[in-house]
Amino acid sequence: xxxxxxxxxxxxxxxxxxxxxxxxxxxxxxxxxxxxxxxxxxxxxxxxxxxxxxxxxxxxxxxxxxxxxxxxxxxxxxxxxxxxxxxxxxxxxxxxxxxxxxxxxxxxxxxxxxxxxxxxxxxxxxxxxxxxxxx
Length: 135
Known about the structure:
By secondary structure, the protein is mostly helical. The chain has 6 helices and 2 strands, in the order ααββαααα. The chain has helices spanning about 15-25, 30-40, 75, 90-105, 110-120, 125-135, and strands spanning about 55, 60-65. The chain starts with 13 loop residues before the first helix and ends with a helix. The mean pLDDT is about 90.
């Protein structure tokens, strides 16, 4: 491994593996989908904050950032301290709950659910979907 370059497996700590296993069983989402989604969203970096985005909350436009492994937008999906979203034990369960909700909304269609998770209004980012669905 090249110094400073994180590989796919480096971030899969025993604690993260345990959280993923629990959430996989709870929401009936294959573990590989959860791991691939985490890697697509954050490259496995739990402390990452995404690029600033403009969203509408309660009729007001604000600038925010998605947080953590599964890139959760705090203003939409978490009522607590947004810094908590940098903790895998908080972030992963929320991300899995969201994906489960989107799966229900899309009648089990994983591609549609992943597009909803990614906020895709149009079917544009097929590379994102391919990354997550790969074996």
